[in-house]
Amino acid sequence: MKRLLTMLLCGAMVLSLAACGGGSESTASGGAASGGAEGEASTTSSDTLTVVVPMDPGTLEPARINEQAFYDVIHHIYEPLFILDTDGQLQNWLCESYEYQDDTHLVIHLREGVKFSDGTPLTANDVLWSFQRIVENSLPPISQIMDLDIANCEVVDDNTLILATVRPAGTLIKRLAYPGLGVASKAAYDAAGGDWMNGAAIGTGPYAVKEYVAGDRLDMIANENYWREGEPATPNLRLRFVSDMTSRSTEAKAKGADIIINVNPREEESIAAVEGVEVIKAPATNTVYLMMNTKVAPLDDPAVREAITYAINIPQTIELAYGNLGTPASGMVAPGVLGYDENMFNEHFGHGYDPETAKQMLADAGYPDGIELEVLVETGDSTRHDIVEAFQAQMAPAGINLTITELDSVVLYDRTNQGDQHQLVLSGLTCSDYEADSFLNQILPGSSNIKMTNFDDPTFISMIEESGTILDEAEREQAWKDTLEYLAESNCMIPLWHKELISAQMDYVEGFEMSPAFEEHFYQWTTVNK
Predict the structure, then answer these.
(1) Torsion (CA) 243, 245, 246, 248 in degrees, nearest 10
(2) What residues are paired with 429 via a beta bridge?
(3) What local confidence, expressed as pLDDT, does residue 28 receive?
(4) Which residues 6+ apart lie within 8 Å of 62 measured at CB?
(5) Are strands 217-222 and 207-213 parallel, antiparallel or unpaired?
(6) What's the whole-model pTM score?
(7) Strand runs (DSSP E) across 262-354, as ranges?
């Protein structure tokens, strides 16, 4: 991690916090700058880095999907104003400096001379337009900029803009590091008629699109106009899409790629036993939750939701699914996140597995014959499938018949976004700025994930909004704890597992480190030295 931090500091000014008081193939061409090696990318060539990733993005539109695996693909094309390094430290990126005019007006000064991959200059208008597009289309990263007063944000000149907020926003700077807030070229978008798969996918990132093949791969070439000298370290990047975790583990054992992201933790020993393969881990700020739709029967009854907490065995299930990777949940957010309380889980969910109590609670709530429930889980995530399969068996003695439905991520989000077409969802949410707000803002009205729970309690909403206005960190920490306590009492989100990242790399790979904050790993510093 220290090596990465050193590289970051060489290329970007350390952020000063003084002013502040995180089958059939379809192809696409990015219309990017010319350059890079021609012909097929190959894992045998030192000028190509091949990475197996868990998700086919399905689109090159920035901010389209709220998924870490999506951003791990897209952020090589588009960059945000700030980034969080692997130590969780905020670094200036496209923003060179900033200052506050007052509590609700943040002045951003862009780096001089930054160009998009097509050679055109980055301007403040591109930044503001990128934010406006997210707000106007209610795209998932809106949760990170919900306090922007977008109508009153202002472009001062090509390198300066003023971000106005509707209230003081103590964590806005860190949230601007969200990879979903990567800046795209408005001119390229307009010229391509808004077609992200054919010409609009132009950003300032280290790589530019060469070819996208749906269901297979994304090939990228070095951005000739990249503003960081000497980067990317490897001129060609091939991202291969393998959604099934077990298949990714097989790729690692067969040495089928240089890096394989998110292998099956239960195959850690067998992967590490292969000569020339290394298993690497890193902490994360993500927690997996069993999320309950509070607006559909029978989950609209708080007593039913509470009964479910007695009908599942969380520690046993997490050990079954993840082994020694990560930890069973101990709080509503992960350890190390501002707002984490080590006692909160035990107070609300630590009563243990008790199906008889759950059965009686359901009877008292008017369901003496039990209930029927459906849980949605993403296709290809074998560990999450194991979790819901265990829950299915555990719930049966309590009189709960649980049906498991696996869906591709895009289909799952489309279904939950309807609001009334689901009951339970297994999903992970990340505190990407190392504060509880990054998680809580994702379940506010207007955000992409609130439909998973539909918990729009006015008191809860006001607690989130008011906590975010507190500039003093100690006071804000207590406010986050109070807000998370209120959420825990609702039983609409049961925390299950605090994530740990696990991947595999070949021993000739150098410079790769996993990024805990958003899990959008930085391949631009990675070299292939066969």
Answers:
(1) 70
(2) 287
(3) 52
(4) 74, 77, 78, 130, 180, 182, 184, 203
(5) antiparallel
(6) 0.78
(7) 277-292, 327-328
